[in-house]
Structure formats: structure tokens, C-alpha cells
């Protein structure tokens, strides 16, 4: 099927009975997508490619040499050919024009009798439009067949067989995992030549490719090849429809597999709780994957507010599938299990562990990026990653530290927060000091004069101190961040020097102040969180 004609087909129409091909006869198989009447010798801005040009020669009647310039333009714009009505304005065609057309296999057709261009354009355009309508009809029928097959078939090779027989082409499916399938089968030599792109200079071979995507990532490359004919736009449309339905078929298959995995997670709970025996763990891993391939692992917990508010089982399965797809690209094999209020992901590293943090950061960013592009509304995505362990028997240690990371994130400023337990060193220390009960006393021992001054005079000394330290004592940068003039900043710094001492920017004292400011923020957030919890408990008890 094609929505366009060839020059040869057009020459068989009734309006071309008294014509002659005077040059470029080897180009009669060129495609004609439209017919255009042009009388101006400057035609570049009028053409888009594959037009058959009709002309009476009016534009070059006074100087036949202009025809050479005109034909060169048509060739440069990838027009299909030129039809000239002779004896109206011109009698002959210069030899250099015929030579140029022969060189480029550009058909020049002459009418020896007067013709009506309006009838020619109407006839050919009607034919092209009818072909386009037939093409859409065939495409719709093929799509319907694909959709019906979605309900009936249980393996993707049936879609590939349909594509192969319908277009009479060879089909090659190249999976991102490295597996290659050919329909029908081809020799190893042929396959390797195509895979290594050794056939790109083979003029007899026509090929098209289409990427099959699942959850925004390439899952396979679908390729069609033909030596019998040049592949056209109809082939491209059929290939596109097949790739789309294959993506849906494979996504459904992966979804079913993910649901099946959910039924066998009892041993995962034993693993993260440190209750599994080594031989049982490696037996479970070996049944799913070669455990010797793992260089280490990390547990991360994930809270998705929107998912909990909807249908948990269905949404969690989709979220798991999307997460697994993204993380596999960065060298992690995932296991999922659930607790009452969060999803637990065990990520086993299949690559060198030195780069695990960088790869995991990119994977988590990939999840957020996919969410923003497809609007799945995982906006309340809280992620806490525990310690990376090389001994897989210590995954319980990683799990406990992941839970601590989620808890600590509530009390950390956004600029200091992190997904990773190892990045929250200072806040882990603050948590320990808080639990021992003397953190408030220590913090207020350092910052109370500044806090009390702000309360008494409605000042901004504490904020000024924090920004001034963050800017490494740069007065210009500090005043910009605080949106105040330099004179106001100088006045505040003088007040801070009187309260804290003129040496408060000395390295040792500065370090103490930075720690106390972080602790002060932590305590404010912690106390706010506790107040919310106490209010919730009070309301629940009264209800």
C-alpha cells in the first residue's frame, strides 16, 4: 500500500496519451505525492519535494536558457519530474537541459497537444486522495486485528508473524537485554551484518526501525527489512501501530509477573528483620538470579501519600513496575515488600559498589522525572535509603537505617535534606543528643541571647547570623540574600558581635555556632512534629 503514485503510473492515465519522455526515462519509478502548476522560473519557495510540475514554458519563453536554471532548482528541491506543454510558448528544449535531466534521472515529459492542466490535477489528486483513504481504511483494519489479538494471544511472536506476513518483509526484534529474534529466522551471518550495520551501503536493502517503549524507556527495537521493494509511509504506519501494541502487550505481561512476585515475599520480611539463615537466603536468590553477581545491597523505604489514598494493590504494582524498569538501567535488581505505612525496596547491586550512590541518585531522579512527564501524581514521594552493605546478610542493618533516614528527614531543612543515611551525620548526632535529654539546654546556652533579643525587639539577628555563616562572612552576598542594604547588615553584625563576642567568626567558634543553629532548626521541627502528634492523639481519644 502507498498513498502516492509513480511517474510510470501517471503516464498510463488518459490525459497522458499524447506524451513523450524526452529525458530522465530511468526515473519513471519516482514517487509523486502531489501535482503543481509552476510558471515562474524561481520555484524554490513553492516546493516541498516529490511534486510533479506542470508548465507551459511561459517563464522562459523569452530566453530558453532559463529552463536550465529552472530544472536545476527542481532537482535541488527533490521534485519528481517536469511536464511541459510544447508549441504554446516554446518549440524546443535545449540539449544541456536534457543532459542535466538524464544525469539526475529526472523525467522531463512533453505534451505534443494542448491539454487542460486543471483536468490533470483534478484526476491525479483524486487518485492520490482515494489512495490515502484506502490506506487509512487498511490501517484501521490492521489496528483492529492487533487489538483483537491482544485478547487472544499469549506470546508476542504472533504479533511479529502478522507484521511479517502482512507487509511481506523480514522482521528483527532487538531487546535491550541483548536478545535478538528474527521473523522468519535468518542465518547468523545475516543477523550479525545487520546488527553491526554492515548493510548500510546496500542499496537493494530497505529498512525501517521503531523503538518499543515501556514506561518511558526503550524495551526493544523493532526493525523491518525488504529487498523486494522500497519501504514506504504505509509500512512506517503499520510498524508504528505494531510497536505500540507490542509495548502494551509487554507492559501487561510485566504487570502480571510483578503481581505474581507479590505473593512470595514472606522470606523478604525475614531477610530485612535479620531472621533468615544464610543458606536459605542464597537459595532464594539463586532461584531468581545468580547471587554471585551482587557486589552489595541497600534497603530504601518509600512513602507515597497519593498511593495510600487510592487502591493500594493496583497502584503499588504499577509503581513497582515503573521503579524496577528505571533501576534496572542503573545496575540494580529489586525486591519489593510492604509494611503498614510504606513500601520497602531491597536493591541489590550488580555493578561495582563504588558508584552505587551516584547511580541510585540518578535512578530516583528518573522516577521523579517520569512522574512529572506522565502526571502520575507521586508528588508526596518520601524516600529514605539506608546504609550500603556488602554482606547481604546485613540487609536488616540497612533497613533500620533507612527507617531512621525517613524519620530524620522530618526535622531537616530542605537545603540539607538527603535520601541517604550517610549524608545525615550531624542530624543523627542531634537525634542522639535529643534522646539523652540535654540538647535543648546546650542549644539555648549558646543562642539564648540572640533569640531573646529577637523576641524583645522583633529583630532578625538569628536569621542574619545563619545567612552570614552560610555566605562565609561575605557581606555583599549576605545583604543580597536578606534583601537589605549594606548599612542595615553592618548594624546587625555589630549587635551580634556585642552579644556573641567579636570573635564569633573565628573557625572554632563559628563551627560551634553552625552546629547549634542546625540543632535549633532540628528542635523546632521536632517539637512541631510532636505537637501535631499529641493533638492527633487528643482528638482520637475524645472521639
UniProtKB/TrEMBL annotation:
Residues 461-519 form the PucR C-terminal helix-turn-helix domain. Pfam families: HTH_30, PucR. Residues 9-128 form the Purine catabolism PurC-like domain. InterPro entries: CdaR-like_regulators, PucR_C-HTH_dom, PucR_C-HTH_sf, PucR_dom. PANTHER family: CARBOHYDRATE DIACID REGULATOR. This is PucR family transcriptional regulator. It comes from Bacillus weihaiensis.
